Amino acid sequence: MNADRRRHSPPPVPGDVAPGHALRWLADGWKLFMKAPLVWAIQALVFFVIIAVLGVLPLLGWAAAPIALPVLVAGMLSGAQILDRGGVLRVSHLFDGIRRHAGNLLLVGGFHLLGALLAALIAAAIGGSAALTGMIVGSAPGAGVAAGGVMLGVLMFTVLWVLLMMALWFAPALVMLHEVAPLDAMLLSARACFHNLLAFIVLAALLYVSTWVAMIPFGLGMLVLIPVIAGALYAAWKETFAALLPALPPPSPDTSPAELKTP
Fold this sequence. Notes:
With 263 residues, the chain is mainly α. The protein is built from 10 helices and no strands. It is globular and about 70 Å long.
């Protein structure tokens, strides 16, 4: 009954977040990482290996990795929640998304894949039609039309991709931690990002720089950055949504009451 009420209640208006809080989210992510650095690093390695293996599967690899991504992200968020509430992080918490909300999280991944394909098709249609028009016109004017169309196609793809990332940002947390329906979670995530656009622009810039820094030592820094991003996402979710949505379900079915403190 309570779960049905939670799923069908009207979505809340996302909370207001100051742009400077993006740095605090990353700091909170780092603090969560330092509570169990070895376990987090192993989780990040397993995360990377799974996505890499799915990505090279014959025929289906291009689709399997983006579909599986929200499931694994949700597992890392579950681990962040367990640590935040005083529990003990295990590598197995990476698979909490499979144990608890696999169907809905896979649907989020399916919407992710469909959104990426749609963005690519729209961009290709714009660029292809411009190139065809340029060939028909010929000479210098035709080349200009073709180049302009390709640039417009790239711009359109970038805009659609950013919108898709906004829809994905909070979706795993909303599905995993509050049992929001997949499409509702993606719409609510996009709404939250638009509502606090400056904060998420700052966060995106910080993550861009951090990713390049993490790649310098042969990519090993990603074993730290991936958990820190998971912790930052959890911190952003707490500030934006946690106080506005109903009480959380238990973080993990294999976490005993002795390991978990009430928040």
